[in-house]
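Course exercise 7: structure representation. Students receive a sequence record and must write out the corresponding structure in token form. The form below is the worked example handed out in class, using NAD-dependent epimerase/dehydratase family protein (319 residues). Read each field label carefully; the graders check that inputs and outputs are placed in the correct fields and that the protein name is recorded exactly as given.

STUDENT ID: A-19
EXERCISE PROTEIN: NAD-dependent epimerase/dehydratase family protein
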Amino acid sequence: MKCLVTGAAGFIGSHLCERLLAEEHEVVGLDCFTDYYPRAIKEQNLSRLRPQRGFTFWELDLSVEVPRSVLEGVQWIFHLAAMPGLVRSWQDFDSYNRHNVTATQRLLEAARALPTLRRFLYASTSSVYGKYASGDESLPTRPSSPYGLTKLAGEHLCRVYSETYGLPIVVLRYFSVYGPRQRPDMGYYQFVEALLTGRPIRLTGDGLQVRGNTFVTDCVEATVRAAEALPGETFNVGGGELATIREVIRLLERLTGQRAVIEHLPPRPGDQVATGADVSKLTRHTGWTPRTPLAEGLAQQVAWQRALLEKALPLRKAG
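STUDENT ANSWER:
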């Protein structure tokens, strides 16, 4: 297959590109390098992909244009590009509207003229459900943040283009994805870094928030399998293993050999209280089930972040 992956330089997108290339698909990667976190991190993600046969990359802002040459011959579109994060979405709604809504509409509009298209997969989020996101896909969608609202708007755009123009859309709602290459603003990354560097963990809320944790390779496996699912479906993608934030911190203490110092902060506006994906629908349609236990996945993330710090240490000493 010839695949287009938007957000290819990001956390999940770079893993997805690697998986598709390993299966000998042709991959066109696309990213616009928003200022949400340093470009150097995304460039490091891309460094594994650029030399590989079958991979081409475009630096492109979908909200501005989608050149025909980017989509030529594409059969699978994996639309992972988005402006992520909860807190900033309250402060910079224009950016979230631009990158999560306008960019999605531009891509859908371009895709409807694509005769080779077999599937358009839209990566959504558990945030569309709101503060209480535990259950199956029949849960009401009540976003509790502007971020969740814009991602739900993207889902509705996909539905409209599917119903009006027959686009073969599949929507995936990701739940709390973690693992190597996780974004530096995400909670588990910050917890691990604090433990490894001896700084306090800045904990928002009481730590009793429940998360259904999805290891990144399990997420990628679900995404690839969903490319063969019936169009028009929406699926939860989650790890099946629930833990409170406090339980995650205790596990990370064991994995790092360090004791956490907690700095308590007020809850963030719109933060989710509980997430837990019922993935039985995806299992029925594709046979996918999550395979990575939380302890094993976190051990891989700790090892990756430890290596990052060790690599950076000589640079700091030299500076």
